[in-house]
Design goal:
Oligomer: single chain
Number of domains: 2
Structural class: alpha/beta
Strand order of the largest sheet: 1-2-4-3-5-11
Largest sheet: 6 strands, mixed
CATH class of the largest domain: Alpha Beta
Shape: elongated
Distance between the termini: 35 Å
Order of helices and strands: HHEEEHHEHEEEHEEHEHHEEHHH
Number of strands: 12
């Protein structure tokens, strides 16, 4: 039996367990840095499959590293498992976790035969937007010695190299002064007005930025009572641009809009976070092409969508995998779960992430990624390029 057939046979043996893992994580959503159940279940599945597992790595309670094989080419698969607040697994991280586990188990079965070291990195808190799991783990050495990193993300359709742009998430808080809103309004300093001024300025700024830039956020505290001048308000915003260098200049302009709110109202302002954002994704084209060939061999179809409602191809999200891709070869393809008209970050998409189509995506994504790792180890030119790539 050749290596790819052996990897497939191993994956088929654990396929029911992977589906059960995905459904279990889906039924017990946990937000970033709180994925205690999900990370434990992922670690348990890998340990039961014979991989060596380290839990709570990099001083992160819900991060993990599992390893098998001792070959010269070191490939890492990344597993995410955090959910979105309020709408659960509407980005399908339960599927990502199961795909990562499956790919690691399948590749581990032939690792020594083909010359691989296989690592599964459990990377928490991808949705937090600042100082997220991969960013911290990259800083703390979890990717040291890795020659290439891979993960597969669910979406409406299959896309080999989806656009993933740079992003920065930060918190803004204003402090003013309370007063009776009717009897003594002149004695108050209105922190809610500061947010209104800032959001108005951001709205006007939008006509002067690149069409690919994005600015969006929520008010996290708008005041306590309508008859009290709000002394404390806050918001959380994300700013995105196609390149990290563009992002930095845009971020300064957005910060100025928030500072304008403080200046106009007399409030004080604090801006926190946003210093460890997400870089744009630099897909390794050769690895992405290999993944696409392997996925197509399993019956997946890669095509531009006819449905104009689909934004996953024409627009872009962001991921901390982008930071990894700036340091070593990496891919982040999208695997379709036939969810249209539902798209990522909608409750309807969350419902699609525990269906037969999602379960099929677990098998296909895991096997295509494991086969891509085998290709990297057995195709001489690709193997030598990855082994010689400088970090």
């Amino acid at each position: 039996m050749d290596a790819k057939s052996a990897a497939r046979a191993r994956l088929e043996a654990v396929q029911p367990d992977l589906v059960e893992l995905s459904h279990r994580i889906h039924a017990h959503p946990e937000v970033g840095w709180q994925e205690e159940k999900a990370s434990a279940w992922v670690a348990d599945a890998l340990a039961e499959a014979g991989l060596s597992v380290q839990r709570a790595v990099c001083d992160l309670p819900t991060a993990l590293i599992a390893r098998a094989g001792s070959g010269p080419l070191h490939i890492a698969f990344c597993a995410e498992y955090d959910c979105l607040p309020g709408i659960g697994h509407a980005c399908g991280h339960n599927i990502i976790a199961a795909i990562g586990v499956g790919a690691a188990i399948a590749a581990a079965a032939v690792a020594d035969e083909v010359g691989l070291t296989v690592t599964l990195l459990g990377t928490p808190a991808e949705e937090v937007g600042d100082a997220a799991g991969k960013v911290v783990m990259l800083e703390r050495g979890a990717f040291d010695g890795v020659h290439a990193a891979m993960m597969v993300h669910p979406g409406p359709i299959d896309v080999a190299m989806p656009p993933m742009i740079a992003a920065s998430a930060f918190d803004v808080s204003y402090t003013g002064k309370e007063a009776h809103a009717s009897a003594f309004p002149e004695l108050g300093i209105n922190a809610a007005d500061a947010l209104v001024v800032a959001q108005t300025a951001i709205g006007l700024l939008r006509q002067h930025i690149r069409h690919t830039d994005r600015i969006h956020g929520i008010v996290t505290n708008g005041g306590a009572a309508p008859n009290v001048i709000p002394a404390h308000t806050s918001a959380r915003y994300i700013v995105r641009s196609t390149k990290a260098q563009h992002l930095q200049s845009l971020l300064k302009r957005v910060h100025s809009c928030f500072e304008a709110g403080a200046l106009a109202t007399g409030c004080t302002i604090e801006i926190a976070g946003g210093v460890k954002g997400y870089a744009e994704m630099a897909h390794d084209r050769e690895l992405a092409a290999a993944y696409q060939r392997n996925a197509e061999a399993l019956g997946r179809q890669f095509r531009a969508p006819a449905d104009e409602r689909l934004s996953a191809v024409s627009a872009a999200g962001s991921t901390d995998m982008g930071n990894v891709s700036q340091v070593l070869p990496a891919i982040h393809p999208i695997i379709g779960i036939n969810s249209l008209p539902a798209v990522n970050h909608q409750p309807e998409f969350a419902a699609h992430c525990a269906t037969a189509e999602a379960d099929r995506a677990i098998f296909d994504g895991a096997l295509a990624m494991a086969w891509t790792a085998i290709d990297a180890a057995t195709q001489p030119a690709l193997r030598e390029r990855l082994l010689s790539a400088k970090r």
